[in-house]
Design goal:
By secondary structure, the protein is mostly beta strands. The strands form four sheets. Strands 1-2-3-4 form a four-stranded antiparallel β-sheet, with no helix packed on it. Strand 3 and strand 4 form a beta hairpin. It is globular, with a radius of gyration of 16 Å.
Length: 171
């Protein structure tokens, strides 16, 4: 996003833009921006000089994180957990399900596994979406700080806790 997009956005303005996920295809590039109290915007940025709002999703609560894998979109809703949508047609996202995941701050989808950074409870949640209409918790792991960012690569999950670490190891 450009600085002007924050000052004069062509879509519902919001003070907070926590996460950004970009997905490309042959015809359109879709940008999903969580806007906390303004929900989630799906924006076509094929022409970067004139982004176009495709759709706005009114989320369950404050939208704090977003991840896309294939056609599955996952939105963090702080105290209300996660929402899952099928975004095969970005202009008509289809609600699939929701599940509780503490104070969901950040999310990352890898295959059929969803990693969630739970901020206030300082926990990493792993959730199975083998059946995305019925997500199930696989595990909850304590973190040394607030779950503020998550990423999965291979068999490893990375969880950022920022400067909130209790022990300040490796510093």
């Amino acid at each position: 996003m450009r600085k002007d997009d924050y000052v004069r956005p062509p879509y519902v303005a919001s003070e907070h833009r926590h996460c950004l996920t970009i997905r490309g295809s042959a015809d359109v590039l879709v940008e999903d921006v969580t806007c906390r109290d303004a929900g989630l915007n799906i924006i076509d940025v094929k022409a970067p000089d004139s982004p176009k709002l495709i759709r706005r999703i009114d989320t369950l609560e404050l939208a704090t994180g977003v991840s896309i894998s294939g056609n599955i979109l996952c939105i963090c809703n702080r105290h209300m957990g996660l929402e899952f949508y099928d975004v095969s047609v970005p202009s008509k996202p289809e609600y699939l399900s929701s599940c509780y995941a503490g104070e969901a701050q950040s999310v990352y989808i890898s295959g059929n596994t969803v990693a969630v950074g739970d901020w206030v409870n300082q926990t990493l949640w792993l959730i199975s979406i083998d059946d995305v209409r019925a997500p199930r918790v696989l595990s909850k792991t304590p973190l040394d700080g607030y779950g503020d960012g998550v990423f999965i690569r291979g068999n490893l999950c990375y969880a950022a806790t920022g400067h909130h670490s209790r022990r300040l190891e490796n510093r």
